[in-house]
Hints:
- 2 copies of one chain form a homodimer.
- Chain A is an alpha/beta fold.
- In chain A, about 30% of the residues lie in helices and about 25% in strands.
- Chain A has helices at about 40-45, 95, 125-130, 145, 150-160, 180-190, 200-210, 220-230, 245-255, 275-280, 290-305, 325-330, and strands spanning about 1-10, 10-15, 30-35, 55, 60-70, 80-85, 85, 105-110, 120-125, 130-135, 170-175, 195-200, 215, 235-240, 255-265, 285, 315-320, 340.
- In chain A, strands 3, 5, 6, 9, 10, 17 and 18 form a 7-stranded mixed β-sheet that branches. Chain A has a 6-stranded parallel β-sheet with strand order 13-12-11-14-15-16, sandwiched between helices.
- Chains A, B: Keywords: Metal-binding, Zinc.
- Chains A, B: It holds the Pfam family ADH_N.
Amino acid sequence: MRAAVMHGAGDVRVEDRPDPKIVQPADAVVRVVASCVCGSDLWPYAAMPATDTGRPMGHEFLGVVEETGADVTALKSGDLVVAPFTYSDNACDYCAKGLHISCRNGGRYGFDGVDGGQGEAVRVPYADGTLVKLPVAADSALLPSLLALSDVMTTGHHGAVTAGIGRGDTVLVVGDGAVGLCAVIAAQRLGAERVVLAGRHSARTDLGRRFGATDVVAERGEEGVARVHELTGGVDKVIEAVGTRQALDTALGAVLDGGTISRLGVPQYEQGPIGPALFMRNIMLTGGASPARAYIEQLLPDVLDGTIAPGLVFDRTFRLGQTPHAYRAMADRQVLKALIRP
Amino acid sequence: MRAAVMHGAGDVRVEDRPDPKIVQPADAVVRVVASCVCGSDLWPYAAMPATDTGRPMGHEFLGVVEETGADVTALKSGDLVVAPFTYSDNACDYCAKGLHISCRNGGRYGFDGVDGGQGEAVRVPYADGTLVKLPVAADSALLPSLLALSDVMTTGHHGAVTAGIGRGDTVLVVGDGAVGLCAVIAAQRLGAERVVLAGRHSARTDLGRRFGATDVVAERGEEGVARVHELTGGVDKVIEAVGTRQALDTALGAVLDGGTISRLGVPQYEQGPIGPALFMRNIMLTGGASPARAYIEQLLPDVLDGTIAPGLVFDRTFRLGQTPHAYRAMADRQVLKALIRP
């Protein structure tokens, strides 16, 4: 099969790879119908040291089950399924708590002999515990929004849930990438009255407004913080959907004492300012990597009936062979989120 | 009047200070009946640079109202009152949310012309918003436990509340100081089934057992973490009542993914490990300086009827003139918490 492999920073190639086969009895092989490039894929694209073997890329995909192992009972060949961005057994203590991201037997696509999603097919471990069957046809117009459940929409939802957003809240979302925009959807969906979106790319913030943002702050740094205070008097809840220290500093500047910052962007720093200043202000730091598997079934009805349309974050479609261009276009910010069709 | 003043590390003196008088119409002057030395007083005692003027010490006291300003309506001369460890107007937006520690008009004893509690009398700003009237006589045997509401008991309670402790929980409390011991009381009071206390001073951990600790871990560092896992398999909730990086590392090692760490000890570090490792584990960091004023009325009935007896943390009483000895005894860990009688 053909699949995208990253060999180092800026070096993504579409190559021949072995066709996936059932290895463990809980495996399924899924023929990919649609996958995409994640904002988090851009971190290695910017900085990964060159490797000899390369790393299969992609952790968001949906597709059709082609083959199942002997222990797979909930899925059969021909089922259309969406994959959360990590696999999980849905049976361990963490999965039982809804924390599939910490599954005792879970793992990441593209590592440990598991294929990436940016390819023609994927061997999915713990298929029953991982994949969610979709009640639509493989040519449904809802496919982009269903694909968004793999990561960006379930991640945005995780931010809104862990920030404790409820009816009437004022929320700041830092970042106008796909996750930030999905966090706007999620905040609005959970009843936030006012959603301030911090972002400077007008095409993206316009989509944010369509998703429910009531205000947009284009200024950055201290100016941005000042603007949030001017608009709101400070906010009780922030969803930080970037991962940089600057984004965290914006969150800390905008949040009121006693407020909550939920982080969704993988931190690009090891140490952060959690000393006496944070402590005296009683700011809660929450969020983290989303347990996407736990949320897909919750959000699915809203996607199916059109209540939410996170698929609008996909603003360009590439063929699998064009995947290197998709990376380049996203890295150059010409594309918000690239959908890839094998 | 006589009052304790810190002039630098290790240098506490009891000196003549001006008698407090009403300055603002919301002030009250309180004649101190009992005060104490806080674990947090030991940080400047260890490290404060020498000063010319010195700093009046003490932020925990109870006493009798001697005089009130024209705007004070809820208190009158002769009332026995307890003071939370900061003053607050109980009228601003933060106080309305129960976050009196962030009061827009609040402040700290010993700063900005306000007396410390380790003295004969204190001018208390915003007396109506700060002081809580006690329905007992000034010679009540409950005084130590009522004094504990000033800080250590309300702080321990804040840890249990922000950690979200409820019925059946397993909790780790890191630190066997007065705050850690009060956190044990608070965790038990909110329904925790298992309370593991990490501390190495057997007199203190014995008191912790009396307060409801079900297990004691005397080992420190990695050994301590291993012991907590051995006992519990890891915990969902940790109250960190020390403030050092080692205590935070113990908390991080003992907590399960998706768990909560509530910090009560003022961090003795500016930066902490909140990078990808914490993020991927979905660990929530909460806690902070307690809004004591918000909790005193909640906890008061349990003190009055003897349900909780946090006053047991006071293991020695000093006269005001002996305050320097009280600091020394606490710094040397001969005394858990020193009560001071003017």
